[in-house]
Amino acid sequence: MNVSRAVFDRAGFLRDEPGILDALRSSADALVIVVREGRARVADDALVTVSPAEVGDGAEWGLLGRDGQGRTILIAAVEPEHDSIDAAPAESWLGVRDTGGMLDAESTEMLVAAVTVASWLRDARFCQKCGAETVLRQGGWSRRCETCEIDIFPRTDPAVIVAVESADGERLLLGANANWRGRMYSCFAGFVEAGESLETTVHREIEEEAGVHLDDVRYISSQPWPYPRSLMIGFRATATDAREARPDGEEIIDVRWCTREEIGSALNGDGPIGLPGPASIARALIIDWYEDQMHTVPITDSGPQ
Questions:
Q1: What is the pTM of this model?
Q2: Alpha helix locations (H) across the chain?
Q3: Residue 84: which pLDDT band, with cuts at 50, 70 and 90?
């Protein structure tokens, strides 16, 4: 799995310019991604942008950055019901999970950032310490509580996600979360607790959820995941004893050692299990493991979105 560089310019140098948001909202050249309830409009496999004048009143605004063509992109976080955009077809409003591989890399990165920042813009209007209304700063990337004299920034919650393989590298351990009711199997994941390192979290989560002890923990890649504000940090690891595997019975209702042939079949949509959709790092980790052997067969990756 490749760790890619950013594909759109966040234009951080613009954020501290006085009155930058007001100036950009008045610009005929600025484009806006409107976000409501974690979704943005998509049409013809592309993000829909509008002019600032089309958004109307009541939005929370932020500066997203510049796209590959140098155009300035704003975020407008709106309420679930918003007169100026309600005429858009309901099916055109999509979240990150819905888009899967539909959008190009730049649009995907912009959508994830827009959804994440939009959620924060609407949820962090008041200081959590004193309750005073905060002042938006840095083009929508920070807020200032003038009562407490503190700056507030969008929060990111780190979580690990781990592909666990057998000692011979020929089987992959996946778990069925209770929320999925056995319909899908995935890698194991959990949030980093206070005072934990990433490596400690990997060992703790896998032991808690699957009863397995690990060797050879290694970082693979990461993915921002705006549900609501996670950073998923992907690892691969090797189980010391495959016989230890068992579900915790609460969060994980089943664990299964899958052969390479079973994973290849599931990636092609032919069972025997369901796998996460292509928008997730979980699927990327599974593919990374599957393709790590020279004798694998090609996959079409036609799994669920």
A1: 0.84
A2: 20-25, 96-99, 105-123, 198-210, 260-267, 281-290
A3: low
